[in-house]
Amino acid sequence: MFVYSLAGLQVDGDALPEVELEDNETTARTGVYQLLSRLVSLPDADIHAKAAAGEWPGELAEAGKLLGFPFDFGAPGDNGIGTFEDFQAEFLRLFEVGGGTDGPPAPIYGGLYAAGRMQRMEEVVRFYEYFGLTVSAEDPRPADHIATELEFMKYLTFKEAVSSSPRLQVSFRRAQHDFLDRQLAWVPELAERTRAANGAPYWQWVTSTVAGFVAADAAYIAGVLAQ
Q1: Which domains can be identified in the chain, with CATH numbers?
Q2: Is the pTM of this model over 0.85?
Q3: What is the tens place of the pLDDT at every residue in 90-125?
Q4: Nearest in space to 185 (alpha carbons), one of 135, 136, 114
Q5: In this predicted model, what pLDDT tens digit does every residue of 122-154 receive, in sequence order?
Q6: Measured in whole angstroms, how far is the alpha carbon of residue 193 from the centre of its chain?
């Protein structure tokens, strides 16, 4: 059984209860987005421990075993994880702080990959608000943080999974298609910048996996909608 809970975003009004669903193609997508969102968040001790043990590729593969399209989650290989302090410092160097005055080489905020970050922030917030969501006060992250955007994809796929109406299911699929196309098109550049910055192999694997999965999922949804 897939157990869903919301993090990073919050439902405007009553809290979203945890819901159990039978595993299927859609909940597989939800589960993968849930894990990917966690992997691109500031790492905690649990993320570090599982990275050091090489467990994340297997967890992703298990979450996505019922995907309606083939996807190889790969592995970071010689990941050189190091200590928790080194692991977190590399995340901050690459994605949030950088090592000098110019900011991080591979910022993890989508609005920085296009002219007019505030305009893009407004667009992504409108997406969230249209579906009754706001950025969580308990887990404050900018609306254009990649983890928040992946969390939103998790929410949309979950809403598709629990909808009994075919019309609503199509509506949520169209929303997924639009969000992937309009708000997550920057992720391949994040992966490329991570490589260019000589990021640790583990973080190169994370960003390339996110980019690859977003592209594969976008193609899958486009195909489903075209049927």
Answers
A1: 2-226 (1.10.3480.10)
A2: yes
A3: 999 999 998 766 789 999 999 999 878 888 889 999
A4: 114
A5: 999 999 989 888 877 777 788 899 999 999 999
A6: 17
Beta carbons of 210 and 146 less than 8 angstroms apart: yes
Distances (CA, A) of 131 to 5, 9, 13, 184, 189: 16, 11, 12, 18, 28
Contact status, residue 8 vs residue 136, Cβ threshold 8 Å: yes
pLDDT tens for 36-80 read: 999 999 999 999 999 999 999 999 999 999 999 999 999 887 767
The CB-side HSE value for 85 (13 A sphere, CA atoms) comes to 0
> Residue 98: helix, strand or coil by DSSP?
coil
Cα–Cα distance for residue pair 206/87, rounded to 1 Å: 13
Rounded Cα–Cα distance for residues 210 and 218 (Å): 12
Q: Which residues contact 106 (CB under 8 A, 6 or more apart)?
A: 94, 95, 190, 193, 194, 196, 197, 199, 207
Lookup result for tokens 């590399």: 90
**CB–CB of 145/139 below 8 Å?**
no
Residue 70: which H helix or E strand, with range? none
pLDDT at 19: 63
- CA neighbor of 204 nearest in space, from 76, 39, 14: 76
Residues in contact with 192: Cβ distance below 8 Å, sequence separation at least 6, in sequence order? none
Averaged pLDDT, 84-94: 96
